[in-house]
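RECORD TYPE: inverse folding
INPUT: structure tokens
STRUCTURE:
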């Protein structure tokens, strides 16, 4: 797959693409990332990419013309008609299902906005999908683009050391959509705190039950909406419901 990124700060992506376990996806070309500096498509001595908003108000707005020239250069360089993605507070919130969809696709053109945003005419004419990474505002779309790239890269075969690792991620609807359970490693005792005894027992069925119960507990406490979604999808059995009822009856 190929992601073309329109950005005013391509240097922000360099360390990310060469560090950590996901670098395997980029080094191998499994996830091909190409950076396009928007200022290269601006005109004039100052390579201006923004201007004051019509109607007044604070901040600046990214101009349509440089964005259009950059997008046309990308389309001339790609063999496919990749969807154009804008990271925006008005977009649909990114979740595991969305990431999995991008991870199985052919890529996209990612636009990293800055300032007060993009000229709406460019959005209306060119943007296919708008994505939000949460109910907060960033200074630019680069961090959101990095988040999407990282989430997509780790789902590619051969990227994680353990091929099954991501199958047990939080939010994975292929499993049940619940949050993950707590994890422990050596030493067995740290600052007076023991690892739960069941994890040292070697009894796999009991370990799996303990992990399931902790996942139910964490999800009920932090994201009860995910419990309801799992219930509606038929992903909770009678034992799960019994555990949830017991957890709900505990004093807080």
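DESIGNED SEQUENCE:
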């Amino acid at each position: 797959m190929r992601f073309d990124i329109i950005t005013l700060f391509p240097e922000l992506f360099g360390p990310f693409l060469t560090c950590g376990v996901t670098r395997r996806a980029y080094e191998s070309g499994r996830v091909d990332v190409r950076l396009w500096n928007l200022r290269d498509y601006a005109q004039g001595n100052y390579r201006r990419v923004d201007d004051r908003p019509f109607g007044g108000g604070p901040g600046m707005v990214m101009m349509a013309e440089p964005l259009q020239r950059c997008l046309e250069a990308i389309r001339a360089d790609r063999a496919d008609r990749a969807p154009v993605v804008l990271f925006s507070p008005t977009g649909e919130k990114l979740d595991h299902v969305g990431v999995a969809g991008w991870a199985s696709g052919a890529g996209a053109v990612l636009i990293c906005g800055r300032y007060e945003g993009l000229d709406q005419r460019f959005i209306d004419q060119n943007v296919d999908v708008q994505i939000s990474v949460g109910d907060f505002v960033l200074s630019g779309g680069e961090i959101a683009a990095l988040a999407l790239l990282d989430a997509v890269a780790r789902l590619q075969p051969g990227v994680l050391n353990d091929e099954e690792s991501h199958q047990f991620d939080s939010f994975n609807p292929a499993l049940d959509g619940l949050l993950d359970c707590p994890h422990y490693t050596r030493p067995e005792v740290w600052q007076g705190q023991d690892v739960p005894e069941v994890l040292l027992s070697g009894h796999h069925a009991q370990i799996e039950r303990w992990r399931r119960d902790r996942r139910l507990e964490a999800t009920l406490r932090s994201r009860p909406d995910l419990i309801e979604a799992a219930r509606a999808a038929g992903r909770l059995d009678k034992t799960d419901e019994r555990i949830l009822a017991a957890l709900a009856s505990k004093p807080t």
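NOTES: The chain has a mean pLDDT of 93.
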